[in-house]
Amino acid sequence: MPLSTSQASFTSERSKSVETNVIRPTRFKDLQFTKKPLHIPYSEFEPYKADIRKRVETSRISGLDGLLMIHIMSGQGLKSSKTTLRDLYCVVAVDSVNKARTMIRTGAINFDWDEAFDVDLEDSKEVSFLIYHWDPNYKHRLCFHGSVLLPGYVQSGHKKYVAIKMEPKGILFLTLLYKEPSISLQRLPSVRKNGLFGVELETIIKRESTGLCAPCIPIIVQKCIEEVERRGLETIGIYRLCGSARRKAMLREAFEKNAKAVDLSPENISDIHVITGVLKDYLRELPEPLFTNALYQMLMDALSVRLPGDPEGSATLMLSVLECLPQANQETMTKVLNHLKRVAANSDKNKMTLDNLAICFGPVLLCPSPITSNEAALDFKKHIEVLKYLLEIWDENSSSSKYLSIIKFFNI
């Protein structure tokens, strides 16, 4: 079956962007052969194959926003014309945009990946699974592909056990759990006595403060941003690609126990996407968005009254709204916006333009709490538009940044 244009371009892009932190196949041969076969509850799975009728129906309805939790369990019947062992990995793409990649597994027919990812959705309609042959000496080759059309198939809060018919042969067993924005952006407060995620920003700042001149920025934000700027600014798809959900959970727990002691060096956390995922989780789970509930409508209004003939006045109005933020929010916001501008400055290498970064961070930084499903659906695109505009007018030497440095100096 010939590949579509999007799949062909994806193949080309993927072969150019193989990460340097891929673990050598020989190591996975040892791991694969010593571990027990993955237990798969076959009776719970339903067969799925995207056909032309489903594609036509999906094209007529809106895509999904929110979060899609994907657990890639096993690929079976992935036969080759040769009987030799192969090293395969699976790439997850949403509407032809790379989102995640499994580790390499070695086998002949069956491959147990057993990896999970939390993938952000923004008006998304199709999730594709592309299985590549890893070869250290040659261009990686797309061997198998399959996809699931999301609208009308997944329902929020209901896990689907899916057996996807792959092309040209084989079956991919995985689970899908969709969470609509009213769930994925609930901003529930932490139930842990001395928690980190889901705890008010001011509380974290006071707990971590070591002196009068200490920055009003949570340690987790400082550490994650510094590590990304140290080794991730040129990484293709930074903040768009997601790391292993299992490794992300382990890093989250380490931050919960002792943020100061967390080591984010490549020797300890090899996948930079795990770090970016933890940072986004932290900002997403703040009980109140970084831009606060109080200023939410003011930001929306400032965006709506922009005058094409007065770009300077429009920018001044938007930046003046930010000056109403509490000090902890101002300093953390400045750190985040400065960082995103540095990421975008490397977009020729990392492919993350202001548009792409606004999609990744808009709802995370702006979505108010609490929200209803209808509110989220109406404002999701506005969150993206507001953040994109802020990034366009933001400068590390802007009047807003200078103002923040002054109030920090006087400890106002």
From TrEMBL:
Q: Which CDD domains match?
A: C2
Q: What InterPro entries does the entry give?
A: C2_dom (IPR000008), C2_domain_sf (IPR035892), Rho-GAP_regulator (IPR052118), Rho_GTPase_activation_prot (IPR008936), RhoGAP_dom (IPR000198), SYDE1/2_C2 (IPR057459)
Indicate the segments forming the C2 domain, all copies.
48-163
Stored PROSITE patterns: C2, RHOGAP
Residue intervals of the Rho-GAP domain:
199-398
Q: Name one GO molecular function term.
A: GTPase activator activity
Q: Which residues form the signal peptide?
A: none
Q: Name one GO biological process term.
A: signal transduction
One GO cellular component term noted in the UniProt record for this chain = synaptic membrane
Keywords recorded for this protein, A-Z: GTPase activation
Highest taxon, organism lineage: Eukaryota
Q: What is this protein called?
A: Uncharacterized protein
Q: Taxonomy-wise, where does this protein's organism fall, top ranks first?
A: Eukaryota, Metazoa, Spiralia, Lophotrochozoa, Mollusca
